[in-house]
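Input set for joint prediction.
Command: fold jointly, output tokens.
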Amino acid sequence: MSSSFADALVVDDVSKHFGGLKAMRHVSMRLGAGERVSVIGTNGAGKSTLFNCVAGALPVSSGTITLFGQDVTRWPAARRARAGLARTFQTSRLFLQLTAAQNVYVALGAQMKGHPLRLARREGARWERVAELLDRVGLSGRGPQIVGDLSHGEQRQLELAMALALRPRLLMLDEPAAGFSPAERAHLVTLLNALPEEMSLLLIEHDMDIALAVATRVIVMHDGEKLLEGTPDEIRRSERVREIYLGGAVGDAA
Ligand SMILES: Nc1ncnc2c1ncn2[C@@H]1O[C@H](COP(=O)(O)OP(=O)(O)OP(=O)(O)O)[C@@H](O)[C@H]1O
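tokens >
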């Protein structure tokens, strides 16, 4: 799969083995600039493995990964992050004893470079940006709260604010709705649909409703392979997808 400059991400024939276990086999996919792609699939399908290979948390066994036109296959995660990739984690990486605002402040620090005096002068602007980010994820007014006292849903919203603090060109979210109430799910869909148009989004999501509500294209993984790719409507109508999600055998009918 060749890469064009308009692609945020190209995954080309990537496999990942853990010892004898083939967790992901010959997966290829492309994500255009500003495109929103959801990867769905049942437990053990290989979604997180794909996600971690793209983010640089796991080395691939074979294949290549191209990010914004550059081959990043051998790059560590931090270098991919500097190239414009931000990700969230299934398990929380928040500083629970700090406030929500302080967490975002720390995340912003990862982006700021320069002379300490100049940085000190930009202190006010940095706190304004913290407020803006909290507002964007629906946490305005929650800034002074200790993170350990926030609800699970609010903590996930905060993680999103921290990922956005990096001004990513590609945002990758790993099951952002895990453990959410129906109201929090609806809110998340609104938030994701309001992200800047030019930001590419790769969403790994167990919840099909969310995956289909946010994506322009959906990839279905099953048993370590890419089974199907299509628009949300095509995926909704697919007999194969229904069979997988109902736990039946995967038939030949598309
Ligand atoms: N670090 C690891 N070591 C060994 N096996 C692993 C490792 N990570 C994942 N696997 C295995 O690889 C396969 C794919 O797992 P993966 O977590 O990618 O699936 P998933 O689609 O994300 O599932 P879930 O929805 O449950 O998170 C599974 O059989 C899993 O047990």
